[in-house]
């Protein structure tokens, strides 16, 4: 698709629409026809103009929380039919992508209205010759989703981030979820003709990956994200679902609560403050030493560390246990240099500058007071 081609997005100000619009804009598409009935002064005329011009159509508009069951059909089936009739009227054979729902297979008004919208799209393809892509989406999660509306992820993230209670009626209830960036990726792939389809019945397009979780696990994970400001634990970034869920959670933190304090362990030498800790990637701390102060003079059996001076000047000294030779490294903020702290070497760090020394320290394991693996011995 040419970057200057007009692309119609209905429901452009909704959750998926906002993310898709932002992505296409970032990719350099310059002619986005953004339609949202709630914010259009003349929706019928605007939609007709867009339907005449569009070279590709993302039909994301729909309704899922109406005041009456009849509104399901007007908001999902009828709005789709109206758009397709306009395309046919203008002889526009632009491809049409429909955002549908896995509930289209269920016998409820929402599901039936979505299924009827799907059938309208398939019929349009047959009569108008337009390529069509019908995506049946499970629950979608990610930034900008409206809480306390139709997404349990958005509701849990919003409430937990704001210190509000959540309700978990059935912790074992299983639910499939897809991440908004994956949805947008699959949508834009379809625009380029690259799409995975399930042809067991009709050519339903697939978003991948789909994550399977439970309400209980969802609540537990999101609660742990809030607690991580106290525990300093980092979510498991090797788990794609947990990584994406954490990114989603952060987007719901109130803007007045982005920052949080750390516990500084202070004395007349300076301070030592733990920043992050993980069970498998160790812990990161910030060490501040006043001029002339020497810290350390200990060694480890298995624990190992990395020191990085980011402000000031220091000498880091090493002596292998049982030997007399001392090795020195002079480091400063003029050249950022990582110094490994091997096992079996007693070591210290001295502030030899005229200002506070700030050192970022990484240890391969979180400190365990029951097994500190730290033994005093002067260098």
User: Which strand order do you get reading across the main beta sheet?
Assistant: 2-1-3-4-5-9-8
- Are there runs of 5+ residues with pLDDT below 50, and where? none
- Whole-number radius of gyration? 29 Å
Helix amount: 25-40%
Described by strand count, sense and barrel closure, the largest sheet is:
7 strands, mixed
Which CATH C-level class of the largest domain is it? Answer: Alpha Beta
Beta-strand content bin: 25-35%
Question: What characteristic shape results from the CA principal axes?
Answer: elongated
Average pLDDT:
95
Q: Label the CATH architecture of the largest domain.
A: 3-Layer(aba) Sandwich
Domain count: the total is 2
| Terminal Cα span | 67 Å
Helix count, DSSP H or I runs of 4 or more residues: 8
Series of H and E elements:
EHEHEHEHEEHEHEEEHHEEEEEEEEEEE
The CATH superfamily of the largest domain turns out to be NAD(P)-binding Rossmann-like Domain
Report the count of strand segments.
Answer: 21
Provide the structure class. Answer: alpha/beta
Describe the structure.
The chain is an alpha/beta fold. It has two domains: 7-227, NAD(P)-binding Rossmann-like Domain (Rossmann fold); 264-376, Jelly Rolls (Sandwich). It is built from eight helices and 21 strands. It has helices at residues 15-26, 43-53, 70-89, 109-128, 152-161, 180-191, 215-231, 240-250; strands spanning 7-10, 32-35, 56-59, 96-101, 132-137, 139-141, 174-179, 197-198, 204-205, 211-214, 264-267, 270-278, 282-289, 294-299, 305-311, 313-320, 326-332, 338-341, 345-351, 357-363, 375-376. It has a seven-stranded mixed sheet, sandwiched between helices. It has a six-stranded antiparallel sheet with strand order 11-12-13-20-15-18, with no helix packed on it. Helix 1 links the parallel strand 1 (7-10) and strand 2. Helix 3 (70-89) runs parallel beside helix 4 and helix 5 (152-161) packs across helix 8. It is elongated, with a radius of gyration of 29 Å.
């Amino acid at each position: 698709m040419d970057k200057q081609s007009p692309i119609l997005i209905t429901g452009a100000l909704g959750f998926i629409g906002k993310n898709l619009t932002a992505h296409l804009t970032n990719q350099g598409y310059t002619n986005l026809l953004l339609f949202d009935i709630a914010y259009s002064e003349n929706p019928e005329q605007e939609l007709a103009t867009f339907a005449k011009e569009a070279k590709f159509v993302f039909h994301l508009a729909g309704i899922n929380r109406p005041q009456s069951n009849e509104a399901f059909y007007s908001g999902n089936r009828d709005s789709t039919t109206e758009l397709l009739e306009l395309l046919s009227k203008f002889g526009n054979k632009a491809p049409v992508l429909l955002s549908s729902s896995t509930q289209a297979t269920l016998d409820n008004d929402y599901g039936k209205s979505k299924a009827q919208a799907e059938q309208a799209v398939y019929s349009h393809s047959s009569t108008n010759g337009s390529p069509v892509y019908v995506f049946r989406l499970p629950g979608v999660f990610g930034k900008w989703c409206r809480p306390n509306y139709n997404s349990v992820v958005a509701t849990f993230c919003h409430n937990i981030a704001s210190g509000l209670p959540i309700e978990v009626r059935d912790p074992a209830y299983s639910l499939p979820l897809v991440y908004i960036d994956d949805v947008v990726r699959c949508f834009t792939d379809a625009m380029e003709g690259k799409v995975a389809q399930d042809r067991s019945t009709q050519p339903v397009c697939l978003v991948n990956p789909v994550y399977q979780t439970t309400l209980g696990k969802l609540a537990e994970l999101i609660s742990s994200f809030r607690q991580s400001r106290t525990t300093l634990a980092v979510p498991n970034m090797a788990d794609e679902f947990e990584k994406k869920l954490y990114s989603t959670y952060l987007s719901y933190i109130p803007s007045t609560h982005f920052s949080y304090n750390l516990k500084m362990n202070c004395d007349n030498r300076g301070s030592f403050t733990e920043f992050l800790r993980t069970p498998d990637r160790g812990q990161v701390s910030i060490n501040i030493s006043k001029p002339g102060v020497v810290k350390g003079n200990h060694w480890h059996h298995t624990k190992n560390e990395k020191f990085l001076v980011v402000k000031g000047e220091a000498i880091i000294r090493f002596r292998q246990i049982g030997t007399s030779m001392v090795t020195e490294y002079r480091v400063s903020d003029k050249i950022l240099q990582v110094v490994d702290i091997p096992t079996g070497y007693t070591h210290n760090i001295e502030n030899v500058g005229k200002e506070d020394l700030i050192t970022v320290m990484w240890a391969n394991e979180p400190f365990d007071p029951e097994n500190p693996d730290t033994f005093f011995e002067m260098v």
